[in-house]
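Fold these two proteins, one after the other.
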Amino acid sequence: MSAPAPFAKVEGCDLCRTKKITPWYHEDDICWVAECDVCDTPMVGWHWHGEAPPAEHGARMCARLKEVALTHFEKRWVDDHMRNVPDHWRAHARPADGFWGWQFRQRLPGALSRATGPSGAGRAGRAARRPAC
């Protein structure tokens, strides 16, 4: 996949490398949605390095995340706080009353999970340029 200008990938960035070490639910030329290896929730990641994707990319990424999240949690919230990699945009869909995916015991029937394999509100103070899922 070649980067359209001015988008680029950064060597050494875990999210730019996009190793498939957990179940993946979606991938296209803008984003991917996979289960986060830290919190076991669906996470959308931008294929390109940066904190502020263009609005059309943001809308598409949020839509893909919501589609996958509906198969995991009936009620959810979107967390776009970039904790471990602060300069690469991504967002997690979390259970409405929790943070961790494994903490939410009532996954919907037929939901995808790490065990079976592939088969909201944002945070306050979000930067204005970031997608609002």
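Now the second one:
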Amino acid sequence: MELLEKFFEVYHFDKKKRYGINEDGGYVIGVLENYKYDCYISAGVSSEESFTRDFLLEHNYLSKENCFAFDGTIDDYPYHYTDNIIFQKKNISSQESENLTNLQELLSNYDKIFIKMDIEGGEFPWILSLPDEILKKISQLVIEFHGLWDDSWETNFENKLKCYEKLFNTHFIIHAHGNNYAPSNKFPHVLEVTYINKDIMNNVEMFYNKSPLPDTELDFPNNKFCSDIDLNFYPFCFPSSQKVLITGFPHCGTSILKSIIGHIDSVDEIFYETTNLNKKTNKKFVCGKWPFYDDQFIYSNEFKDCIKIFIIRNPIWVFSSLNRRFDYNIKDDHSFQKYLEVLNKFIFFRNNSEKNVFTIRYEDIFKNNFEELKKIFDKTGFQYSEEIFDNEKYNNKIVHGFDKYNSNCDDNYKADYGDNYMLRTMQINKPFTNNNFIKNIELSQEQIYQIINNKTILEIFPEINTFVL
């Protein structure tokens, strides 16, 4: 089954619609706003054409001379569904003869083709015979694959894989539904698949499907007397991304920590500061940061399953940095009192285990080749390599579109609000090392007194006693 997975990854599509009856014969397709097909083909008719009826009623600009139906197993078309179609008593094949057609001559006359196909295994030799330039003319294809994962239906599995790969190269899958008339071995033996041409979606960012399949509003069992086939697993349905929030207190290293995590291949990093982690992504994790700790991150339902990494830094360098940033006019939400409130929360979670909450001091990130940080990564399920700690390999950003900085800008740079992006971009693009340097201490006498005489601070940062302030 692993060989199949890559070729059947389903992508999210905003607007889908079902045409046809609510059992065998109905299919789900993508709605393309303001898009006009120039040809419709029903390949495989039998006695049920409710899909064709509904599709042609909806796309009534299609004239009869551009709508075709093919089936060599019936004497005539069931015209009570629609008479706006030209019927040919031929089966679809890789060959062209009196009783067979490969459709190539017909398809070459059009550029925006819609095909509905259910031809009992004949789909495989037909796809294999189709030149790529013809395949690319098919705007949307809803097709039923027979014997998906074995040598049945007169085509061996190796050739079936070639068919899946061929379509994979030119089209996205936007919907899949298992036919419950056939058996299922995790993957359905018979699978209905809706493809949309990649060229149509060229300017659209595509995301993997994370909505349940079957879709209870669009999908119905082919056999209404049996339950539908569950497709809520990869590659049909991707699990929702795990949210990761970095929080703590301003100037404590939340940006640096987020940048390190953002280097992991399975992480989609949100560059700007936000608490909204609801980002559409194909990656396993979404990581953002909000430097102002709030109890809602721990106790609200919104963040209940979110991984929280709580970081705090020695106040000597926190307030030295803030003094430079605000020229000693520190705002209330950056105040010493606010820092103490956050520090007490940090101590609480450090001493009391809470699900999905991890604590780390800024100073401990860099020790022993990031040993403490790696312990957190291992517990969260991150799959990472040593390369993520080599910052020279990456171009880190604070905000979208801002990735430049002045090489003369250093940690002592007094930045106004506009230049602050430059300073912060510089900081997260430096080698990942502890930047608590004595030369960077810039405190008032009042701040020094507050820091060295606070028992809570000294509990977490006992090394403060070794500094001469």
